[in-house]
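Customer ticket, subject: "Can you confirm the structure for Gonadotropin-releasing hormone II receptor isoform X2?"

Message body: Hello, I'm evaluating your service for our small team and ran a test protein. I'd like someone to confirm that this is what the system normally returns, since I don't have a reference to compare against.
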Amino acid sequence: MDTEIGDNIISVDLWTKHNGAGSNLSYTDGDGFGQSVSIPNDSQRNIIHGNQSEVAQLPLYLMFNSDSLISIVAYACLMFLAAVGNLTVFITLFRNRHRRSRVNMFIMHLAIADMEVTFVMIPIEISWHSTVQWLAGDASCRLLAFCRAFGFYLSSFILVAISLDRYFAIIHPLSMQDADKRAKIMLGISWCLAMVCSIPQSVIFHLEHHPEYFWYTQCVTYHFFPSDAHELAYNLFNFTAVYAMPLVVITMSYSFIIWEITKKTKQSREETTSINETTSRGTSCLRRSGVGNIERARIRTLKMTVMIVLFFVICWTPYYVISAWFWFDSESAKKVDSKIQRAMFLLAVSNSCINPVVYGMFTTTFRREMRKCGCWFKNQLYRTGTSSSKALAIHGMPHFHQPRRLSGL
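Agent reply: Thanks for trying us out. I re-ran your input and got the following:
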């Protein structure tokens, strides 16, 4: 069963990837070689390995090409944006850690998960697109597979933890005395589950040699699953763990939250209209004002978390739709343009860039830190320019002024 999605030899499918090796394997146009070939025997391998110059040149789709360059540029842009945003979020929250906000604690761990994608997964993808084949060996192949999945698992599980924390805060406010302890437990479970769910990736992915160009190696899943049914089951497990299960839990949690807020808002309006004018009116107004501020803060926090979850759905749904299409009907799915397939995966990865932006929309401290970073960067540019000007003045560069004198200006 062909489940690969992607351009050339680089599959954007996180979970399984066939493109690269096999005995009598018919390869697909997107990732394979379009024909059934057999793995050479030992003597043939020695001849091929020792006389690579005599072997026909690799096809274009097995080498670095324009599609590879486009992918590298796209990943580099995502890496820059995600690095700036997530580092600013992390620094902002770290500096304000004395506030002991559970939401801030969750957002910090979400930023850490996004930074794992930013500084581990994306650089590896850039390197892989640069070399096209896998040159780092079997151990690195397995480590890559673990790292590619870990950040996405962790992000999903932390989003689930955030939604559950908001659920308990609004639906069961009397249980908030143990809220900090519960939040730490949920975060610990999120990290442990992400590690456990990512371990199979390091077992399934391994190094394989191309059956026709034996020196050409790739990090793939081929030869691991005993049947197509086993592979489909594994893909569905990952789909459920990373996307479907979190989506169901998050949707249910926020549905209950919205229902509860609607009910409380209605009750509050009824109570307000029934309050009589008394001599203690000023005191009651102050009390209601204080409660109103707390409620507004809760609503703002709820809006922020809902936006984070909404963008998670927007970014990941197209990728899993096309993935499911490949899993169940690969023949028709192969007709989808490879550029669209790459765009779907890049959209999923871009979720790591969007989370900091959403956080910044609802947090004044984040915007303040961003302004500080911008001022620091401007100051560095100014200092660099000033230092360069001083250096020119000290060393004396008459030829810069000479044209003015010669032209009579």
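A couple of notes from the result: Strands lie at 6-7, 10-11, 25-26, 36-37, 206-209, 217-220. Confidence is low (pLDDT under 50) at residues 1-12, 19-55, 286-291, 391-409. Feel free to reply with more questions.
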